[in-house]
Write the structure tokens for this entry.
Amino acid sequence: MRRRLPLAAAAAWLLAVPAAADVVTASSTTVVTAGRPYRDGSLTSAVPVYELVSISASEMKTSWGEFEATLSAWGAVDGSDIRFWQNGAPVGSRATGDVDVAYLRGDLRSRKLTVRLGRQVIVEGNARMLHLDGAQIVVRPSRGFGLSLYGGAPVAPRFDARGTAFTTGNTLATVAYGGRAYWSLAGLLELGVSGSMATADGDLTRKDVGADLRITPHHRVEITSSGFYNLPEKRVGQVDVAVGFEAQRTLRLAVDYQHVEPDLFLPRNSILSVFAADKRNDFGGGLRWTPMRTIAVDADYHLLKAEDGNGSRARLKGTYRPYGRWVVGADFQLLKVPENGYWLARAFASRELGRFAATLDGWFYRYDKQVNGQDQSLGGTVTGSMQLAPSWRVALAGTAGSDPFYKSRLDVMAKLVWNQLYTREVR
């Protein structure tokens, strides 16, 4: 219970802050789903009810600087059989919930200094979307130089103990910290170096260094690259290189290469590292062609090279948007790998008509090898929504089909959404 009190106090304080803000954005989404999931060898009934709420207060200007407060949280209740909750949720409990983000951000000294305190997601450098209860400081002195530092405790979902297998993401730790230093030349170049470390009760679980680069030698050409090196293992964990080229106004080309060693994405003390896939290399390219404003064609092809065998993947997608409120399209995909492969055919459409909107999505998979005695999967989703009021919208969706795990299935979801923007004029 003690570890819940600081978050509860922070949430209460963040809810009180908007009174001083110039712009307040609030939203609430209620989602009800019904289906028959497969669990422990049999089908069970599941009717979970979710409530997602968020509130953001920004443009709070003071003599010190400009501030922003953000809170996003969710809760869920099982309306039917109690489901099997994972990631730290209390087993046998009908209700659960969590706080996604809750932080206060301040832009100080003409935005040369930014401080963010609370529950947040760190994205800079090789942090790899670290979900953290802590602090981040960004300093931008001048001449394109900048420094970002962060530290805190990785988040444990549903207020569970930190440093356990239930910690979010791939950083199993009680303490994590790191940062990124960068230099940029406006419109031409940005170069960054970063480091990330984590420990679980004193034991090292992560120690990586990384680098990233973006070059724009011409307004039609962009080159990006990033990667990280694991210091304890003395191996490169990932390298990405991509080159994008706008051949003409209607045609954009891209080539890319990726090297990945999956076991280095896991904590050093994780037993799952022995089950991680072998290192692999992907290289290929793609294009986006828009011969007309209403037509777009996307295509790509990649070769996959791995220690257990080579493979390939390809995709072709076409989209047609007549009159702005219609969208129709088709998607074809092919995957060939030693374990198994498939080809996919998909068709989709959507239509807006006043306060109403509808979407239709259907798909068919054909597997190279049987899965549970089946070599195909067929399904579709139909969604309809209506604008009840300027800030309120309701949607109803149904999914039906069959696959190697379900002879037949039907899931229904209802959603009620409320969004509101408040502004206060300051004279």
